[in-house]
Design brief:
Layout: E1 3-4, E2 7-10, E3 14-15, E4 18-19, E5 23-25, E6 28-31, E7 34-37, E8 40-42, E9 45-51, E10 54-57, E11 60-63, E12 66-68, E13 71-83, E14 86-89, E15 96-101, E16 104-113, E17 116-119, E18 122-127, E19 131-138, E20 141-144, E21 152-157, E22 161-171, E23 174-176, E24 182-183, E25 186-187, H1 189-192, E26 201-202, H2 205-208, E27 223-224, E28 233-234, E29 264-266, H3 269-274, E30 283-285
Protein backbone atom coordinates (compact mmCIF):
# COMPACT_ATOMS: atom_id res chain seq x y z
CA UNK A 1 0.00 0.00 0.00
CA UNK A 2 0.90 3.71 -0.39
CA UNK A 3 3.27 3.60 -3.35
CA UNK A 4 4.35 6.48 -5.60
CA UNK A 5 7.38 7.06 -7.80
CA UNK A 6 8.38 10.01 -5.56
CA UNK A 7 6.79 9.30 -2.16
CA UNK A 8 4.45 6.64 -0.84
CA UNK A 9 2.84 8.82 1.87
CA UNK A 10 3.39 12.59 1.85
CA UNK A 11 2.43 15.06 4.59
CA UNK A 12 4.45 17.90 3.07
CA UNK A 13 4.14 20.28 0.13
CA UNK A 14 5.01 18.74 -3.23
CA UNK A 15 5.66 21.13 -6.13
CA UNK A 16 7.23 21.12 -9.58
CA UNK A 17 7.69 17.37 -9.96
CA UNK A 18 7.62 15.58 -13.34
CA UNK A 19 7.50 11.84 -13.92
CA UNK A 20 8.02 11.18 -17.62
CA UNK A 21 7.46 7.41 -17.58
CA UNK A 22 7.41 4.31 -15.39
CA UNK A 23 5.16 1.64 -13.93
CA UNK A 24 3.76 1.49 -10.39
CA UNK A 25 2.20 -1.77 -9.18
CA UNK A 26 0.76 -2.76 -5.82
CA UNK A 27 -2.50 -2.95 -3.89
CA UNK A 28 -4.10 0.28 -2.56
CA UNK A 29 -3.26 4.01 -2.72
CA UNK A 30 -0.99 4.00 -5.77
CA UNK A 31 -0.02 7.08 -7.77
CA UNK A 32 2.36 8.06 -10.54
CA UNK A 33 3.96 10.57 -8.15
CA UNK A 34 2.30 10.13 -4.74
CA UNK A 35 0.56 7.11 -3.29
CA UNK A 36 -1.17 9.16 -0.59
CA UNK A 37 -0.97 12.85 0.29
CA UNK A 38 -2.45 14.99 3.06
CA UNK A 39 -1.02 18.42 2.24
CA UNK A 40 -0.56 20.42 -0.98
CA UNK A 41 0.42 19.30 -4.47
CA UNK A 42 1.01 21.88 -7.21
CA UNK A 43 2.54 22.15 -10.69
CA UNK A 44 3.18 18.44 -11.07
CA UNK A 45 2.99 16.14 -14.10
CA UNK A 46 2.95 12.39 -14.50
CA UNK A 47 2.90 10.00 -17.45
CA UNK A 48 2.90 6.66 -15.66
CA UNK A 49 1.26 3.27 -15.83
CA UNK A 50 -0.33 2.58 -12.44
CA UNK A 51 -1.86 -0.81 -11.64
CA UNK A 52 -3.46 -1.92 -8.38
CA UNK A 53 -6.70 -2.63 -6.56
CA UNK A 54 -8.17 0.46 -4.86
CA UNK A 55 -7.47 4.23 -5.02
CA UNK A 56 -5.34 4.27 -8.18
CA UNK A 57 -4.39 7.46 -10.05
CA UNK A 58 -1.81 8.47 -12.64
CA UNK A 59 -0.77 11.37 -10.36
CA UNK A 60 -2.07 10.55 -6.85
CA UNK A 61 -3.80 7.47 -5.48
CA UNK A 62 -5.47 8.93 -2.37
CA UNK A 63 -5.68 12.73 -1.94
CA UNK A 64 -6.56 14.49 1.30
CA UNK A 65 -4.81 17.76 0.42
CA UNK A 66 -5.25 20.44 -2.22
CA UNK A 67 -4.22 19.59 -5.77
CA UNK A 68 -3.74 22.51 -8.15
CA UNK A 69 -2.31 23.07 -11.63
CA UNK A 70 -1.40 19.44 -12.22
CA UNK A 71 -1.91 17.15 -15.18
CA UNK A 72 -1.46 13.50 -16.03
CA UNK A 73 -1.33 11.05 -18.90
CA UNK A 74 -0.64 7.33 -18.86
CA UNK A 75 -2.85 4.47 -17.76
CA UNK A 76 -4.59 3.74 -14.44
CA UNK A 77 -6.26 0.38 -13.81
CA UNK A 78 -7.66 -1.51 -10.84
CA UNK A 79 -10.82 -2.66 -9.07
CA UNK A 80 -12.40 0.54 -7.68
CA UNK A 81 -11.74 4.28 -7.27
CA UNK A 82 -9.60 4.64 -10.37
CA UNK A 83 -8.87 8.05 -11.92
CA UNK A 84 -6.79 9.62 -14.65
CA UNK A 85 -5.39 12.16 -12.14
CA UNK A 86 -6.54 10.98 -8.69
CA UNK A 87 -8.08 7.72 -7.59
CA UNK A 88 -9.84 8.94 -4.45
CA UNK A 89 -10.37 12.45 -3.10
CA UNK A 90 -11.23 12.64 0.61
CA UNK A 91 -12.77 15.70 2.27
CA UNK A 92 -15.24 18.25 0.91
CA UNK A 93 -12.96 21.13 1.95
CA UNK A 94 -10.13 19.86 -0.24
CA UNK A 95 -9.45 22.03 -3.28
CA UNK A 96 -9.08 20.21 -6.60
CA UNK A 97 -8.55 23.16 -8.94
CA UNK A 98 -7.13 23.85 -12.41
CA UNK A 99 -6.18 20.28 -13.31
CA UNK A 100 -6.31 18.18 -16.47
CA UNK A 101 -6.04 14.47 -17.28
CA UNK A 102 -5.71 12.61 -20.56
CA UNK A 103 -5.00 9.15 -19.16
CA UNK A 104 -6.80 5.91 -19.97
CA UNK A 105 -8.76 4.58 -16.98
CA UNK A 106 -10.15 1.11 -16.31
CA UNK A 107 -12.03 -0.22 -13.27
CA UNK A 108 -13.21 -3.81 -13.02
CA UNK A 109 -15.74 -3.08 -10.25
CA UNK A 110 -16.76 0.58 -9.72
CA UNK A 111 -15.87 4.28 -9.56
CA UNK A 112 -13.79 5.11 -12.63
CA UNK A 113 -13.40 8.70 -13.84
CA UNK A 114 -11.33 10.45 -16.46
CA UNK A 115 -10.09 12.89 -13.78
CA UNK A 116 -11.04 11.30 -10.43
CA UNK A 117 -12.57 7.93 -9.60
CA UNK A 118 -14.32 9.00 -6.38
CA UNK A 119 -14.47 12.75 -5.67
CA UNK A 120 -16.16 15.31 -3.43
CA UNK A 121 -15.64 18.57 -5.31
CA UNK A 122 -13.80 19.93 -8.36
CA UNK A 123 -13.43 23.36 -9.98
CA UNK A 124 -11.95 24.36 -13.33
CA UNK A 125 -10.81 20.95 -14.52
CA UNK A 126 -11.24 18.80 -17.62
CA UNK A 127 -10.48 15.33 -18.93
CA UNK A 128 -10.03 13.76 -22.36
CA UNK A 129 -9.05 10.14 -21.66
CA UNK A 130 -11.02 6.94 -22.25
CA UNK A 131 -12.85 5.49 -19.21
CA UNK A 132 -14.05 1.88 -18.94
CA UNK A 133 -15.97 0.03 -16.22
CA UNK A 134 -19.27 -1.51 -15.08
CA UNK A 135 -20.56 0.79 -12.28
CA UNK A 136 -20.28 4.51 -11.46
CA UNK A 137 -18.32 5.43 -14.58
CA UNK A 138 -17.95 9.04 -15.78
CA UNK A 139 -15.93 11.00 -18.28
CA UNK A 140 -14.83 13.35 -15.47
CA UNK A 141 -15.77 11.57 -12.21
CA UNK A 142 -17.10 8.10 -11.53
CA UNK A 143 -18.73 8.74 -8.14
CA UNK A 144 -19.28 12.13 -6.50
CA UNK A 145 -19.63 11.49 -2.76
CA UNK A 146 -22.57 12.76 -0.70
CA UNK A 147 -22.27 15.39 2.01
CA UNK A 148 -20.28 18.61 2.39
CA UNK A 149 -20.53 21.88 0.52
CA UNK A 150 -18.17 21.06 -2.36
CA UNK A 151 -19.51 21.21 -5.93
CA UNK A 152 -18.54 20.43 -9.50
CA UNK A 153 -17.97 23.83 -11.14
CA UNK A 154 -16.66 24.85 -14.59
CA UNK A 155 -15.50 21.44 -15.76
CA UNK A 156 -15.88 19.30 -18.88
CA UNK A 157 -15.17 15.83 -20.26
CA UNK A 158 -14.76 14.67 -23.86
CA UNK A 159 -13.15 11.23 -23.57
CA UNK A 160 -14.89 8.01 -24.63
CA UNK A 161 -16.87 6.39 -21.79
CA UNK A 162 -17.30 2.67 -22.34
CA UNK A 163 -19.55 0.49 -20.19
CA UNK A 164 -18.81 -3.15 -19.51
CA UNK A 165 -21.24 -5.89 -18.47
CA UNK A 166 -24.68 -4.86 -17.20
CA UNK A 167 -23.46 -1.34 -16.48
CA UNK A 168 -25.30 1.17 -14.27
CA UNK A 169 -24.65 4.82 -13.40
CA UNK A 170 -22.68 5.60 -16.54
CA UNK A 171 -22.42 9.22 -17.67
CA UNK A 172 -20.62 11.45 -20.13
CA UNK A 173 -19.56 13.76 -17.28
CA UNK A 174 -20.51 12.01 -14.02
CA UNK A 175 -21.41 8.42 -13.24
CA UNK A 176 -23.11 8.94 -9.85
CA UNK A 177 -23.63 12.42 -8.41
CA UNK A 178 -25.21 12.02 -4.98
CA UNK A 179 -26.46 15.31 -3.54
CA UNK A 180 -23.79 17.62 -4.97
CA UNK A 181 -24.51 20.62 -7.20
CA UNK A 182 -23.09 20.71 -10.73
CA UNK A 183 -22.63 24.17 -12.25
CA UNK A 184 -21.64 25.17 -15.79
CA UNK A 185 -20.05 21.80 -16.53
CA UNK A 186 -20.34 19.91 -19.80
CA UNK A 187 -19.80 16.77 -21.82
CA UNK A 188 -20.02 16.02 -25.54
CA UNK A 189 -22.23 13.02 -26.38
CA UNK A 190 -20.64 12.62 -29.82
CA UNK A 191 -17.20 12.16 -28.21
CA UNK A 192 -18.04 10.40 -24.94
CA UNK A 193 -20.59 8.11 -26.64
CA UNK A 194 -22.94 8.85 -23.72
CA UNK A 195 -26.23 10.68 -24.26
CA UNK A 196 -26.84 11.18 -20.53
CA UNK A 197 -25.00 12.07 -17.33
CA UNK A 198 -25.92 12.34 -13.65
CA UNK A 199 -25.23 16.06 -13.75
CA UNK A 200 -23.92 18.58 -16.25
CA UNK A 201 -25.11 19.75 -19.66
CA UNK A 202 -24.66 18.01 -23.00
CA UNK A 203 -22.96 20.12 -25.68
CA UNK A 204 -22.00 19.69 -29.31
CA UNK A 205 -18.48 19.77 -30.70
CA UNK A 206 -19.36 22.93 -32.59
CA UNK A 207 -20.63 24.75 -29.51
CA UNK A 208 -17.59 23.80 -27.40
CA UNK A 209 -15.40 25.55 -29.96
CA UNK A 210 -17.07 28.88 -29.07
CA UNK A 211 -16.36 30.99 -26.00
CA UNK A 212 -20.01 31.88 -25.35
CA UNK A 213 -20.77 28.26 -24.41
CA UNK A 214 -18.71 28.43 -21.24
CA UNK A 215 -21.02 30.45 -19.03
CA UNK A 216 -19.31 32.48 -16.28
CA UNK A 217 -15.94 30.78 -16.86
CA UNK A 218 -12.91 32.94 -16.06
CA UNK A 219 -11.14 33.61 -19.35
CA UNK A 220 -9.02 36.35 -17.78
CA UNK A 221 -6.88 34.33 -15.38
CA UNK A 222 -7.77 30.61 -15.62
CA UNK A 223 -9.05 29.55 -19.05
CA UNK A 224 -8.23 30.35 -22.68
CA UNK A 225 -9.79 29.41 -26.01
CA UNK A 226 -8.95 29.92 -29.68
CA UNK A 227 -12.44 30.04 -31.11
CA UNK A 228 -13.05 27.59 -33.90
CA UNK A 229 -9.65 26.00 -33.25
CA UNK A 230 -9.76 24.61 -29.69
CA UNK A 231 -12.06 23.80 -26.82
CA UNK A 232 -11.41 25.79 -23.63
CA UNK A 233 -8.05 24.93 -22.08
CA UNK A 234 -6.22 25.91 -18.91
CA UNK A 235 -3.72 28.75 -19.29
CA UNK A 236 -1.23 26.87 -17.08
CA UNK A 237 -0.74 24.12 -19.69
CA UNK A 238 -0.03 23.63 -23.37
CA UNK A 239 -3.03 22.82 -25.57
CA UNK A 240 -3.65 19.05 -25.71
CA UNK A 241 -3.97 17.51 -29.17
CA UNK A 242 -7.30 15.95 -28.13
CA UNK A 243 -9.08 19.33 -28.04
CA UNK A 244 -7.73 20.74 -31.32
CA UNK A 245 -10.48 21.11 -33.91
CA UNK A 246 -8.27 19.69 -36.65
CA UNK A 247 -8.00 16.40 -34.73
CA UNK A 248 -11.73 15.97 -34.04
CA UNK A 249 -13.91 13.61 -36.07
CA UNK A 250 -17.25 15.22 -36.93
CA UNK A 251 -19.26 16.42 -39.90
CA UNK A 252 -17.84 19.83 -40.77
CA UNK A 253 -20.49 20.35 -43.46
CA UNK A 254 -23.31 20.29 -40.89
CA UNK A 255 -24.86 23.74 -40.60
CA UNK A 256 -26.04 25.20 -37.28
CA UNK A 257 -24.97 24.75 -33.66
CA UNK A 258 -27.47 22.17 -32.45
CA UNK A 259 -29.28 24.62 -30.16
CA UNK A 260 -33.00 25.35 -30.02
CA UNK A 261 -32.36 28.77 -31.54
CA UNK A 262 -29.87 27.51 -34.13
CA UNK A 263 -30.54 23.80 -34.82
CA UNK A 264 -28.41 21.55 -37.00
CA UNK A 265 -29.72 21.51 -40.59
CA UNK A 266 -30.04 17.96 -41.89
CA UNK A 267 -29.57 17.68 -45.66
CA UNK A 268 -28.17 14.19 -46.32
CA UNK A 269 -28.99 10.61 -45.39
CA UNK A 270 -25.64 10.34 -43.59
CA UNK A 271 -26.44 13.36 -41.42
CA UNK A 272 -29.87 11.94 -40.65
CA UNK A 273 -28.34 8.64 -39.61
CA UNK A 274 -25.81 10.38 -37.34
CA UNK A 275 -28.57 11.98 -35.24
CA UNK A 276 -28.61 8.79 -33.15
CA UNK A 277 -25.10 9.64 -31.92
CA UNK A 278 -26.24 12.93 -30.38
CA UNK A 279 -29.85 12.84 -29.20
CA UNK A 280 -29.50 15.91 -26.96
CA UNK A 281 -29.17 18.46 -29.79
CA UNK A 282 -31.84 20.16 -31.89
CA UNK A 283 -32.28 19.37 -35.60
CA UNK A 284 -34.22 20.72 -38.56
CA UNK A 285 -34.75 19.07 -41.94
CA UNK A 286 -33.26 21.34 -44.61
CA UNK A 287 -33.67 19.24 -47.76
CA UNK A 288 -35.80 16.40 -49.06
CA UNK A 289 -33.81 13.20 -48.45
CA UNK A 290 -34.14 10.11 -50.63
CA UNK A 291 -33.95 7.00 -48.45
CA UNK A 292 -35.12 4.55 -51.10
CA UNK A 293 -31.69 2.94 -51.25
CA UNK A 294 -31.57 2.29 -47.52
CA UNK A 295 -32.88 -0.79 -45.67
CA UNK A 296 -33.29 -1.61 -41.97
Amino acid sequence: NNIGSLVGHSEGIVENVKVLSGTISGTNNLGGILGQQTNYTKNCYSNAVVQGVKHIGCLIGWAKGNVESCYAFGNASGVNAIGGLIGYQYGSSIKIHKNYAGAEVTATQEDAGGLIGDAEGITNCYSTGKVTGPLHIGGLVGDVSDGGAAQIINCYAVGLVEATGSATDIGGLLGRKGDKTVTNSYWIPAMTNQSSSNGGEAKTIQSMLTKETYETWDFETIWAIEEGITFAYLKDFVIPDEILEENLEYDRTLEGKGTKENPFIIKTAEQLNDIRKNLTSYYKLGENIDLSGYTN
